[in-house]
Design a protein that fits this description.
The chain is α/β, with parallel strands linked by helices and 301 residues long. It has a single domain, classed as Rossmann fold (3-Layer(aba) Sandwich), CATH 3.40.50. The chain contains ten helices and nine strands. The strands form two sheets. Strands 3-2-1-4-5-6-9 form a seven-stranded parallel sheet, sandwiched between helices.
């Protein structure tokens, strides 16, 4: 898929962050886009931003849906068919996700399962719903957003990070298996797994919105609500890679038909380190040394 002009794309979690950036960049390239999100307010902002830069004839629509709910996802699919008057799509980007759900041993089960269900079943439900529409197109591409935590299940030695990591490992494995499945059964449809590092998005803030102040986000234990919000804002504002930069990398990866797309210098550094010494990946100073070296390298540029 070398050109997005005249194509139809579906983007989950399109209300903010990478989802908003992907929606805007696709629309600017002449691609009509259908987004879903749990926030109608966020979607309205994304649609307005996308329509501002889109050429004539591009249509951008929104539908409120919880991707963990299969019935809601199927309703989203039906909405796409009706609003865009189509029986096919060219691009499905499973981007929706939340954090949290860290501790399996002694964390709240409902938080764990909520995070896992959004981050994994959100991908699965949309893949099930939209795969026939991808196959019906003359060319198609499914993009599933995993994470560096899809190959390194850690946020450091002092933080439990089980639900999010388990879900992102599932997304990675599913997408890698799809490469062969599609080649055998629908060779005109490609698959890519995206593994971002720290991207400037609202995922921390959205996770707090999901779970309230009783969240198990890293570093928020014992903090007031104001302090936790400030930490979420710092995560959004002090990232190595912006959402716009991430979207550019992802869409270029689609054009290049790359099945594995690392996003950000931190993702590349962690990937290299885990591959080099996998047995050391969960030792105490593993992540610390990676990020120290990365900071030094970025500071030297």
């Amino acid at each position: 898929m070398k050109d997005f002009s005249g194509k139809i794309a579906v983007v989950t979690g399109g209300g903010a962050g990478m989802g908003r950036a992907l929606t805007r960049q696709l629309a600017e390239a002449g691609c009509s886009v259908a987004i879903c999100d749990v926030s109608e307010e966020d979607m309205a902002e994304s649609i307005a931003a996308a329509e501002k830069d889109a050429p004539q004839g591009v249509k951008v629509t929104g539908f409120k849906a919880d991707v963990a709910d299969e019935d809601a996802v199927n309703a989203f699919r039906d909405h796409v068919r009706e609003e865009h008057d189509i029986d096919h799509i060219h691009l499905l980007i499973n981007n929706a996700g939340i954090g949290g759900g860290g501790g399996f041993v002694n964390g709240p089960r409902e938080n764990w399962e909520r995070t896992f269900n959004v981050c994994w079943y959100g991908v699965y439900n949309n893949a099930r719903a939209f795969m026939p529409m991808l196959v019906a197109a003359d060319e198609g591409h499914i993009v599933n957003v995993s994470s560096v935590n899809g190959f390194w299940a850690s946020l450091g030695p002092d933080t439990s990070h089980t639900a999010y990591s388990a879900a992102k490992f599932a997304v990675k494995g599913f997408t890698e298996a799809l490469v062969t499945d599609l080649r055998l059964n629908a060779p005109h449809v490609k698959a890519s797994v995206v593994m971002p590092g720290h991207i400037g998005t609202k995922i921390a803030l959205n996770t707090m919105r999901e779970f309230g102040t009783q969240t198990d986000l890293p570093g928020t234990a014992g903090q007031t609500e104001e302090e936790a919000i400030q930490r979420g804002e710092e995560f959004r504002d002090n990232a190595i890679t912006s959402a716009e930069q991430a979207a550019e990398i992802i869409l270029q990866g689609v054009k290049d038909e790359r099945w594995r797309i690392l996003v950000g210098p931190d993702a590349e550094a962690i990937d290299k380190a885990v591959r080099a010494t996998p047995e050391d990946a969960y030792t105490g100073d593993f992540g610390t040394s990676i990020f120290a070296n990365l900071r030094d390298a970025i500071g030297a540029e």
